[in-house]
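Q: Please design a sequence for this.
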């Protein structure tokens, strides 16, 4: 193979780490670690031996030089003479050996790398190695697949003890850690890396493990209702979004699915996705799981659906989904190849889940944003209020489904929001409304908030108004919102965790303007639609409220040049005076922005307004004629 590139040994370590990290069959999302031993000058210019090792929490695939803290090797090696050391003692000791005192915390497996005499050491959690190492007799499986010169260490949690045991086996060609992974080494970068590839290839062939990936469910999937119910059940405490891997249907349908659910292919997976998978034959399985383990499951195998994963944000859900795919398939491969598997006992799993070092990592995570795990649909999101509301809700942690007839504008809104789903179409078409609901469920597993914002301006004196213009305004500004209300209802009911419907009406609902009939009548109807939704939804915890803004010009498609000219004429002013005119006639004398509306919507979408339904919130700067009544 080609030489591993780099100008310095540290650069070559970075290159080697990236090669390993980009191979999904070797490590996933932050798993594994690599190191090299080199010579560096200390603060007095003395040349000293240094271990450069991946920092805890960084990812091999995207590693850079700064992700490899250095430790003075000659300060580490005397530890081999110690009989034992707790995690806390070890971490404190490592802290004293740092080349850069403020560098990233070195890997928990630092001493394992330090004690091995070879210059370069690689440690991976390769699926195929784990499939071997989880065999009923790992020693025999490794001997047969990889040869006599590869040693096996029985399971022990990473830390000081494991480092010493591996060091004792330095005369072997490599070491397999039962229920954990592989350790290889070499004088050169190439030697260590090539040995990893060779052993993983041999293991792959032996256990007949095929490539592992995640498959999206078909969009016409019929299990939507079941997913929505599941999301509701999992979200009773904190809101969760779901991700689904349809590729695991075969595994979820196996007779021995309970066996697969009870194991993980590596303890690393326990930390990332929890120790156990829930087999979802019915929703009661979630209750039983919660009673047994004290928390709702994060990973589920659902016969007929595949693997379902829950998290407070969709990125975490997708990472967990990939980890679960590797964990479940590797376990299945072990069972298929060896007729059974060996796995950690319940106390060992608990020991790993309660590992103080890893819990400390979780404790330092930032607090979840207000709308974490929630899913919001915003219509008319291509511009104006809709765009501002969408961006604001996303900033509060909500997952966004955006709909609008203006595809170009919608894509622009979506481009500013991570993981947003954008659906282009006409909301007066019931088939499109169905697609929007299905799109939300397919992307995130359900819905919590709908912001009914799509609308058009419609003007003209009654005597002169075309019949079609009247009908079009009622259709877009009122009927489309009924179509969506009706279709979101069963989703909210199945979830059983309430929901918030926010109707963007207008100051015109209470204070109409002459020549603005088709718009004002539709907006008044929208307030009444909201009230009926509040009346009918209360028993299910579905709250419905309206926001009545006035005169929001920035970024608005509604305020076309034509409309400006018309309304300016109606008020006897010039078109370019219209912003100032609207601002000055309000009690507060200030212009109203889309962000003011977004603030009101966020309040109504959140639990802060949990006691509020059937309410109209004005965002108009104060217009006495438009006070709600
Ligand atoms: Zn490991």
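A: Design:
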């Amino acid at each position: 193979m080609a030489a591993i590139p780099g100008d310095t040994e540290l650069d070559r370590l970075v290159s080697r780490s990236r090669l390993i990290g980009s191979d999904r069959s070797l490590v996933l999302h932050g798993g594994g670690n690599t190191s090299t031993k080199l010579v560096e000058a200390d603060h007095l210019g003395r040349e000293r031996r240094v271990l450069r090792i991946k920092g805890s929490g960084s990812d091999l695939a995207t590693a850079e030089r700064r992700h490899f803290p250095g430790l003075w090797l000659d300060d580490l090696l005397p530890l081999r003479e110690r009989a034992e050391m707790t995690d806390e003692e070890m971490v404190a000791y490592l802290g004293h050996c740092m080349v850069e005192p403020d560098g990233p915390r070195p890997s928990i497996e630092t001493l394992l790398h330090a004690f091995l005499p070879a210059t370069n050491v690689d440690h991976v959690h390769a699926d195929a190695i784990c499939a071997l190492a989880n065999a009923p007799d790992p020693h025999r499986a490794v001997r047969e697949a990889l040869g006599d010169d590869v040693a096996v260490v029985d399971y022990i949690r990473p830390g000081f003890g494991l480092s010493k045991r591996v060091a004792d086996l330095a005369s072997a060609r490599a070491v397999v850690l039962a229920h954990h992974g592989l350790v290889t080494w070499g004088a050169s970068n190439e030697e260590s890396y090539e040995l990893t590839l060779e052993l993983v290839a041999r293991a792959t062939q032996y256990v007949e493990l095929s490539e592992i990936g995640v498959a999206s469910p078909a969009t016409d999937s019929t299990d939507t209702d079941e997913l929505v119910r599941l999301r509701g059940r999992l979200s009773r405490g904190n809101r969760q979004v779901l991700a689904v891997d349809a590729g695991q249907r075969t595994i979820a349908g196996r007779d021995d699915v309970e066996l697969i659910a009870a194991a993980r292919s590596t303890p690393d997976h326990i930390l990332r996705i929890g120790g156990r998978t829930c087999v979802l034959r019915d929703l009661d399985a979630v209750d039983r799981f919660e009673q047994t383990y004290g928390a709702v499951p994060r990973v589920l195998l659902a016969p007929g659906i595949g693997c379902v994963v829950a998290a407070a944000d969709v990125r975490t859900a997708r990472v967990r989904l990939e980890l679960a795919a590797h964990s479940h398939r590797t376990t299945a491969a072990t069972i298929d190849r060896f007729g059974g598997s060996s796995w950690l006992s319940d106390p060992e799993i608990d020991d790993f889940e309660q590992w103080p070092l890893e819990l400390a990592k979780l404790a330092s995570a930032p607090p979840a944003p207000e709308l974490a795990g929630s899913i919001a649909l915003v219509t008319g999101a291509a511009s104006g209020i809709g765009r501002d509301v969408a961006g604001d809700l996303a900033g509060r942690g909500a997952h966004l489904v955006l709909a609008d007839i203006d595809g170009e504008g919608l894509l622009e809104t979506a481009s500013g929001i991570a993981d947003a789903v954008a659906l282009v179409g006409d909301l007066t078409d019931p088939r499109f409304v169905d697609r929007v609901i299905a799109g939300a469920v397919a992307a995130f597993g359900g819905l919590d908030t709908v912001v009914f914002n799509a609308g058009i301006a419609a003007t003209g004196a009654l005597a002169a108004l075309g019949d079609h213009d009247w009908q079009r305004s009622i259709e877009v500004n009122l009927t489309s919102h009924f179509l969506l209300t009706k279709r979101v209802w069963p989703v909210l009911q199945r979830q059983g965790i309430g929901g918030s419907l926010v109707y963007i009406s207008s100051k015109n609902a209470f204070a109409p303007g002459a020549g603005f009939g088709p718009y004002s009548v539709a907006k008044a109807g929208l307030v009444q639609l909201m009230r009926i939704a509040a009346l009918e939804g209360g028993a299910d915890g579905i709250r419905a409220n309206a926001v009545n803004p006035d005169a929001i010009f920035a970024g608005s498609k509604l305020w076309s040049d034509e409309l400006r000219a018309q309304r300016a004429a109606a008020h006897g002013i010039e078109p370019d005076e219209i912003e100032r005119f609207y601002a000055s006639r309000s009690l507060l004398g200030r212009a109203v922005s889309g962000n003011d509306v977004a603030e009101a919507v966020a309040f109504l979408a959140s639990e802060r307004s949990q006691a509020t339904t059937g309410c109209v919130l004005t965002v108009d700067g104060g217009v006495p004629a438009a006070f709600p009544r």
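Q: Thanks. Anything notable?
A: The chain has 24 helices and 18 strands. The longest strand covers residues 33-41.
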